[in-house]
Amino acid sequence: MLKNKVAVVTGGSRGIGKAVVEVLSDNGVKVVACSKSGRGFVHEFPNLIFKKCDVRCYSSVTKLVDFTADIFGGVDILINNAGVVHRGGVEDLTIDQWNEVISTNLSGAFYCSKAVMPHLRVRGGGHIVNMSSRSAVVGFPGGAAYNASKFGLNGFTEALFLDAAPQNIKVTTIMPGRVATDFGDERPDSWQISPEDVANVVVESLLVGAAAAISKVEIRHSKTR
Ligand SMILES: NC(=O)c1ccc[n+]([C@@H]2O[C@H](COP(=O)([O-])OP(=O)(O)OC[C@H]3O[C@@H](n4cnc5c(N)ncnc54)[C@H](OP(=O)(O)O)[C@@H]3O)[C@@H](O)[C@H]2O)c1
Predict the structure, then answer these.
(1) In testing the pocket of ligand 1, which one of 21, 36, 63, 135 has its CB within 8 Å of the most ligand atoms?
(2) Is residue 1 a part of any domain in this protein?
(3) How many domains does the chain fold into?
(4) 126-147 confidence digits (pLDDT tens)
(5) Which of 69, 79, 87, 158 is the most buried (most CB within 10 A)?
């Protein structure tokens, strides 16, 4: 049962994060959703609050997590979803682009997990879901920064799974193929996985019984383009 659980969703203003926020809210979860810019925050309900937070900044992350615990009385679930992509070979990528991808996709997940774990422990356990990618297992040309961030995120998640298990905290990695969002310079298309499908998988991973943990889910396209 997810009703009245409390979740933090990073990158919850659009794309996959927005779909996750909506499915969690439909399941009665109290949600604090963040994004870097605050753009696209359209609706606020008593049990759904949007906050600006830059996951690249640890003090911004601790403020978000402490705010959530104060307003909803605790935290049970963290969805590390915020992400960016810059495509380019090693010679073309700028230092700023490399740093933005690594600090958002990898360090951001570490910062949010680090900030939320004491709160999960107080509740007797919880669940962290990391939005990884098929690009965590398959490289692509121009993927130097993005592949590095997502391969790194999978490595981080493997270790976190083992560290968190004794504290009754489950950890799940979701690895979708191309999802129909405005991620980077891509545009949604009908052959792509829907954000709602990814969000439903997130919720299914949260609902599995106490003795089981969904550690990894790969979501591939059912058709070729
Ligand atoms: N779309 C795909 O094909 C695909 C496939 C596999 C995995 N993924 C992963 O799924 C996640 C979501 O992707 P998406 O397609 O939904 O992307 P999206 O539509 O571009 O949304 C990205 C979200 O992340 C937020 N964000 C970016 N940098 C942030 C930061 N430093 N701090 C806080 N929030 C930040 C954005 O907020 P602002 O609007 O304020 O920037 C936005 O809410 C990413 O981790 C991505 O790597 C995507």
Answers:
(1) 36
(2) no
(3) 1
(4) 999 999 999 999 999 999 999 9
(5) 79
